[in-house]
Amino acid sequence: MQSPTMDADVLVIGGGNAALCAALMAREAGARVLLLESAPRDWRGGNSAHTRNLRCMHDAPQDVLVDAYPEEEYWQDLLKVTGGITDEHLARLVIRHSSACRPWMRRHGVRFQPALAGTLHVARTNAFFMGGGKALVNAYYRSAQALGVQVRYDSPVDRLDIEDGQFQAAWVQGQRITAKTCVLAAGGFESNREWLREAWGQNARGEWPADNFLIRGTAFNRGVLLKHLLDDHGADRIGDPTQAHMVAIDARAPLYDGGICTRIDCVSLGVVVNREARRFYDEGEDFWPKRYAVWGRLVAQQPGQIGYSIIDSKAIGRFMPPVFPGVRADSLPELAQKLGLDETTFMQTLTDYNRACRVGRFDHTVLDDCHTENLAPPKTHWARPIDTAPFYGYALKPGVTFTYLGLQTDDTAAVRFAGRPSRNLFVAGEMMAGNVLGKGYTAGVGMSIGTAFGRIAGANAALAAKQQKAQSLQALTATEMKANHVIA
After folding, report:
1. Weakest mean pLDDT among 21-25, 111-115, 277-281, 480-484
2. pLDDT in tens, 298-324
3. pTM (2 d.p.)
4. What angle do CA 21, 23, 71 make, to 5 degrees?
5. CB 3.0-4.6 Å disulfide test: which of 125, 233, 291, 462 passes with 31?
6. 142-to-132, 146, 450 alpha-carbon distances in Å
7. Count of CB atoms within 10 A of residue 436's CB?
8. Alpha carbons 417 and 263: distance in angstroms, whole number
9. Where is the signal peptide (predicted)?
């Protein structure tokens, strides 16, 4: 009698950072690993290809990281942006993991570089990838190939065979693929327009906000497996389907894969108005890396899901320049006309703002004392009158990076069914990020989550596969001994 042949010890579904970390860890542990990437080879890597950095805890300066960024400060930053909607145990697990993962990343070919001009706010907290996320993804794929990880591209998984919470097989275009264990790292549902429409619904103005969303990352994250696990297999869920890493990006950005270069980073240096030419939020609430991800959701709640970032010439050179030039005008009335905004309302908004500014010592590198008084909404920091020509305006639309609805897990990265962890099905990356990110975002934390849980899931999947193999051998030996005894 022989045990059934498996296509792999560990099957990894996904092709981005979390999936690659899982595949590499499992392979390092001696497992036979098969990775299924739904995208073609040229588009491999998912959203990870668009990333730039990793948020890292450290207690002292470390090569590209300056000063210190201790655990408690990292936790407080995360607590603030999530509003407390986070699992503290899992969040701290991610934080601690971020302090120790970079040597392992380097062994697999990832290189880091100091923060560049325009990113100095995060020089203390974030380690930047040399060559960006694409270079990181390529390094991991090269390492995976060298170690013997099997990779199949153009291989979307549309369903899983699961019995009593245990993984049996995955189906790819009619082919059944078996493995002892499986890691799910196939991303969220941000490129599934129908699901976004269902989640966001119709607003009081009769609009379908999701129809105006742009997708900053891959077109391949449609959430097929996520919906399958939640709806068909009853996996435990976590998160709000409307919550996401959502950024206000250039309204002229492409529908998919615009990436980091579509961001408009001058919000905190001016004001933002909606289609009705009225301000709607505090542009100077906190440092941009901590607050940039709230603006996509804010714009999504405005009429027509559009906003306009307004600055004057004093702001030029103080932010990362966008790919597309802004609308330029020599006067504010001219700028209103060029942006298609009501001139009277626009001028009243700007006049009220300019009058309310109390300019102290302007310093965009700290939470300075330049603020507004008797203005709603206020501008808490970096408030200076917009009064120096030329003036610039940038139209903004919501840009979704990844969604937060996902699979509930624990510190083993196991998928849970009715509160019970699976013994051989694990999850990492965007499919479980909602355990840590209930809402909000702070720069680089998505890569921290993907790296931590990718490595945890890969290691535990390899261990579970090894245990399953040992149990199978014991059962086989017992069966053979019994058969021999009967024959004798």
Report:
1. 480-484
2. 999 999 999 999 999 999 999 988 888
3. 0.92
4. 25
5. 462
6. 16, 6, 19
7. 27
8. 38
9. none
